[in-house]
Design goal:
It holds the Pfam family HMA. The chain is mainly alpha-helical and about 25 residues long. It is built from 2 helices and no strands. The chain is flat, with a radius of gyration of 8 Å.
Length: about 25
């Protein structure tokens, strides 16, 4: 949960499959 988390959140909004990958990693 750091700078990467913020970037992922912003990119996740546009990258749906990206969010799923991040959620799985979390």
């Amino acid at each position: 949960m750091s700078k990467k988390s913020k970037i992922i959140k912003v990119t996740g909004m546009t990258c749906e499959h990206c969010v799923r990958r991040v959620k799985k990693a979390l």
